[in-house]
């Protein structure tokens, strides 16, 4: 309408000009400008724009709360599966491990931060993308990732399920970031109240220890500053404070930069058990004297305690472990030395202390008392050097399901320091040695239980360590794979290295072990060679006789043979009786006398054939395993329940072979 009236006025003016007048020199110009806003209108617009930008800041906090929480998932999985510990045993220092994780996480976080900045640029949010604010926005986002990422790392020790950790940490990040930023923003609206103003300033200072608050409050302050700048611009004044000033977001940036170092150092100290070593109180007092210790175990203890310089690759001296909240030690002052070229077997029922011993030797758990050394390096003071001389196959497979078998071997070969030119050859050697050729290029997540154990054993042997610890390596293996593994262990022994093996298979121990120790309630009950243990702790001999039929078509008469055995070997126990077969257990008699008496009466008793065998290692093991059961029952069972248990143990059990 204004433009139409201006055109009409210019037409009337030029119609009344002289004929020779220059029309371009005459005209009416109209300028239209709105009225200035009132104080109330200006305040309303400022609050509205600031509130919208504050909501945008909350959305950024919401989005950036999930990213750092996701960094802990893989760390928890590695800790639970013991892949992290296996990397430490293979030569990775904790500092290198955490720095590598941090660098990789920061690369991933940078992608998310770049997407946030790009979205702000696309929608042209001046409070975040103006020439003076875009640098501050980038600094806030990057320093938030720098500080919150190491803050999440200690949470990997708290959770055991990755999904639970992700949900919990995301909720914690959201709660801290949104609530702290929103509360301080709302309290800013009550600046006229001196009490609330002072409380708000104190709260702003205290909340700076949280990177979530530093990010959220920094974004809100940038939005408020832009609103003030727009108000000044309406009056024709230039107001552009430096966003990096201390009173603006400078203190937020400084705190986040410092928190990144602080939280990372705290995480490293937790990894090295600094707080546990300095604050945990371990009772230090005289220990009771060991009563009724086996002669062989006592001699080994004396050898370890008195001899200073020995050729033992592994040397364990009074090693003990008592878990927090318990009185009875899981491992009680064991002493043993393992020489080069020796395979030492460690057997016992579940809970006897075998895996706990391995965990102390590898540095997975702290030692309560005692010490052990590997190739002359103490596990208490030189654990990194111990790891360089040790290969470890844990009880449960510590493998990454996303890597192939060949990639696993390449990874651990590099960690072991194998020259790059030899890595492929070493990996192929391990694949052939353990029979993994068919599965080497498949991801480990598709492996069967037996192939997983073979891969774990191959990892333990990579790099030719002086000591190889194998915790039940053949669990779940088929007989052919078990033979492959036995041959691999024998090659390690022949190379002059040492092997410590735990197993529930006595056949495996007899095939591999040069010496054996049976653990009961955390201590050694016997120690020696297989034949020595059979001879010393065996229950005698097993005599099996097959009686032929005197008259065809009739059942064989077993009575004469039974009477002969009972009269000749008083106290013998008939363990089996079949159609024409008798089996007896003879405790007290010489092997020569048994053969002599049976051979002299062979024809008289119609014995078709017979055999005499020594007590098996399984029977020796079972005899010691009963001690573990009885001692556990005395501790755990209620007195009445213990009486019922003793009654059950007195019930005879008859066995027969069908």
Automatic annotation (TrEMBL):
It comes from the Eukaryota. Its main location: membrane. It is found in: Membrane. The chain crosses the membrane at residues 54-76, 106-123, 135-153, 165-190, 244-270. Residues 314-546 form the ABC transporter domain. It is a multi-pass membrane protein. Signal peptide: none annotated. SMART domains: AAA. GO terms for molecular function: ABC-type transporter activity; ATP binding; ATP hydrolysis activity; lipid transporter activity. Keywords: ATP-binding, Membrane, Nucleotide-binding, Transmembrane, Transmembrane helix. One of its GO terms (cellular component) is membrane. This is ABC transporter domain-containing protein.
